[in-house]
Amino acid sequence: MKVEIDVSLDATLGCGQAHRWKKQPDGSWQGVLGTDVVTMSSVEGGIEVTGCDDRKVILDYFRCDDDFDGIMEDISSRDAYVGELVGRCPGLRILRQDRWECLATYLLATNANVARIGGMVESVCDTFGRDLGGRHSFPTPSEILDRPERISACRLGYRDERLVKLAERTESGAIDLDAIAEYDYGMCTEVLCDIEGVGPKVADCVALFAFDHLEAFPVDARISKVMDLKYGVTGSYRKVADKGRELFGPYAGYAQEFLYHSAFI
Asked: Which among 174, 173, 172, 205 is positioned nearest to 188, based on CA atoms?
């Protein structure tokens, strides 16, 4: 299935937003969307997709309902350096991820590098998810709770108890992801930060990648360095994140992705 879309797969799938995409020797990308093992390749005018026959799923995942050109113009007009990055890396998009999977994944992502995060996520999927033929689905809360004692096999360290608790609270309705989706940015991140293991950075990532809050500006070590070197902004997480939203406006999350990716382009 060909999908006409302006997207750079290498930049978008390889920049650490989602952790289940693997680049193949032929240059394609393989990942799991729901219960589909999906392979995507860049072709003229868009991407070729195998493993998923629902065009809407792909369009939604790449946020094709966004005014992408308008957003690129907006963030470029606010800052010359970001505008330069947009020109150097066309097609870098923010992904719209499954809420439960994104929250659970970023809970695991605390104090870990990209390779470690990917390994933990795959371990959780292999242990609890459904076998899709070579890959496994991301487990639902109930699938984790069916045999919670198996969590130790995932080698998550202190995160294993947090993941089980997250599954318990989500399954019971104590954490209502549909309700959180109705909140504005401030309330969304506040509620997320009430979850054990979720701090401001994880809350911003989840708000951006799962709850459509494009103004979120997650700050990690790389963004902290860029904000210091390029904009002279240092200090607490909140100070740097607030300045990012002030500088880049309602689409600060898109600007953040270009700044994050700037080390590679």
From this structure: 205
| Arithmetic mean of pLDDT, 114-128 | 92
Give the model confidence (pLDDT) of 88-114 as tens digits: 999 999 999 999 999 999 999 887 788
Assess whether 103 and 53 both reside in one domain.
no
* Residue 238 in domain: no
pTM beyond 0.70: the answer is: yes
**What order do you get walking across the sheet with 46-50 strand by strand?**
2-3, 46-50, 36-43, 29-33, 22-23
Domain boundary among the residues 184, 203, 224 is at 184
**Residue finishing a domain among 184, 219, 241:** 184
- Is the distance from CB of 21 to CB of 29 less than 8 angstroms? yes
- Answer whether residue 107 is part of any domain: yes
